[in-house]
Amino acid sequence: MKPAPFAYKKARSLEEAVALLGETDARLLAGGQSLIATLNMRLSAPSLLIDINGITGLDRIAAKGNMVEIGALVRHAQAERSDMIGKLAPLSARALPHIGHPAIRNRGTLGGSIAFADPAAEMPACLIALYGEVEVTGPKGKRTINAEDFFKGLFETALGPQDVLTAIRIPAATKDTRVGFAELARRHGDYAIVGLAASARADGKGLADVRLSYFGVGSTPTRARKAEDALASGDVEAAVAALDLEPHDDVQATAAVKKHLAGVLLRRVAKQLMEPRA
Ligand SMILES: Cc1cc2nc3c(=O)[nH]c(=O)nc-3n(C[C@H](O)[C@H](O)[C@H](O)COP(=O)(O)OP(=O)(O)OC[C@H]3O[C@@H](n4cnc5c(N)ncnc54)[C@H](O)[C@@H]3O)c2cc1C
Questions:
Q1: CB of residue 34 inside a 6 A radius of ligand 1
Q2: How large is the average pLDDT for residues 153-165?
Q3: How far apart are the first and last CA of the chain?
């Protein structure tokens, strides 16, 4: 199929993009890896596409204080190759190779992935696991939204109609940071049936501040809070038994299979969390 007709404008600045978003039924175009597919399938038919790829300064990865800031236009492949991400954001580094295929990672952006908010996507779950935040620019200027408050529902976020997501920020890993990541997909590169992004802080021989952020089990990334508490007390099987998730059947698997796989992933990720950082 072909998309419905649309106009195209290339924004040269954030201010221009925000102003253009004020026009009826306009949509931002970043890497196009999700948006163009929805247009081609006529799942959406905006009258104007605003290309933000020409806006300078949104493609940078930088350490800022104790945070790592990743600009909205940083491509998945660029982040995957970044030494800074490898060192200071090791959970994201583990998750990035699981996003689609190289061609998709070459164009797809971190900002697009967070803004699109696919419940089976890796980056939103990592952002929740890492106490991350989202920087947004709208008609009234810049504001910061905590990741926990950003994902509102299925493909629904706290972004307003004239907002541009400009960056994400995550606390830089320290020597005590522990991370774990695993997902189950039919083939490498497919969206996961179930996935788990996790972080914790080493505390003596145990773990503290455990965050288990599942994807593919609900309409948003979903924390398993009771399992987090059980894992912090050192009992992996108790954590599996406590898994407080309520997945629904979908095209990939039944709810019961997803719940079972969530436990399998938790055992794998718990081992990773307990390994000292290299
Ligand atoms: C075959 C295939 C397999 C894939 N597999 C995976 C996978 O396994 N895991 C995964 O996570 N993703 C997967 N993707 C999606 C891919 O990661 C996309 O790159 C990502 O979801 C969207 O990023 P984008 O830059 O391409 O955004 P676009 O497609 O350009 O935009 C997506 C949406 O976000 C909005 N948007 C984009 N940027 C901004 C911004 N800065 N501010 C506000 N709104 C914005 C757009 O208006 C649009 O509504 C796959 C895609 C394909 C085609």
A1: yes
A2: 97
A3: 49
